[in-house]
Amino acid sequence: MSQLPIGGDGDDLFHFPCSFPLKIIGHRSDDFVQTVRDILLQHVPDFSSEEMEMRASSGGKYLSITCTFMASSRIQLDGLYQALSRHPAVTMVL
To answer: Which DSSP state fits 83?
Structure first.
């Protein structure tokens, strides 16, 4: 198991592999969930769709998807965050 710092000050350490929740927010559309799932599978090949929790905004315009998966490294997390953030359907990644 490796220890890699994540965050700006280097004081926070994640111990990989670890369970990691990631929240993805975007405009509610027919293909948003599948888009998020496809991007996740590129970076986390063993990701299970059962680990997706969805919640619509009060007005119904946005959908948040919380995906929990086993993160293997900071490189994996950085790549996934960048891929999601660059996608036009994604408004925010937390």
So the answer is: H
Query: Tell me, what DSSP letter sits at residue 47?
Result: -
Reading the block at residue 2, the tokens are 């490796």
Strand ranges, E, within the chain: 2-5, 13-16, 18-27, 52-56, 62-71, 90-93
87 token code pair: 């996608």
pTM for the complete prediction? 0.83
In tens, the pLDDT along 6-52 reads 454 444 578 999 999 999 999 999 999 999 999 999 999 999 999 99
Class of domain 19-93: alpha beta
Which segments of 2-93 does DSSP mark as H helices, in order? 32-43, 74-86
